[in-house]
Amino acid sequence: xxxxLGKKLEMTQTWTEKGRVVPITVIExxxxxxxxxxxxxxxxxxxxxxxxxxxxxxxxxxxxxLKELPALRxxxxxxxxxGELRRGDTLDVSVFSPGDIVKVTGISKGKGFQGxxxxxxxxxxxxxxxxxxxxxxxxxxxxxxxxxxxxxxRMAGRMGGERVTVRNLKIVAIxxxxxxxxxxxxxxxxxxxxxxxxx
Length: 199
Fold this sequence. Notes:
Number of domains: 1
Keywords: Ribonucleoprotein, Ribosomal protein, RNA-binding, rRNA-binding
Family: Belongs to the universal ribosomal protein uL3 family.
Protein name: Large ribosomal subunit protein uL3
Order of helices and strands: EEEHEHEEEEHEEEE
CATH architecture: Beta Barrel
Structural class: mainly beta
GO molecular function, one term: rRNA binding
Helix content: under 10%
Pfam families: Ribosomal_L3
Number of helices: 3
């Protein structure tokens, strides 16, 4: 089971032998502790719950859940066959190797309340021919005979802050001493945000 939790640190770049720039995201991945093993017989599906980071204070329910384990900050679940993993085991970046193709899931940057041009890519209106102050407006939001706005109509609203998965990212290099993964391309989220790396 190739999966781990991590923290997005920064973006940088490297160069190929032919001189092409390769954008890279640096992720501090692990060490992660196995907090719970879910089985098909007991829970209805197989999964592994990992914990990442440390927390100073825990609630009583969380203390009971993490009994005899470190005070883990973030818990995330990966579905699949646990294999030989047991509660209390530790995983680090060595589960991956350079060249692996992975998926990365995180919470995208929040952009606040945005209009339809930024949020949905609307083209807006012409800047002349009677469109004095309507250049970035959405235009009509319904038909005349329907007499209501259809469900799912794209409008202005809160943008970002959503769960996003980026697929087919290549692991360029691994730093086992610093627990860091160097992934080609962009990863969702702001700096120091939690990400899930898995195959």
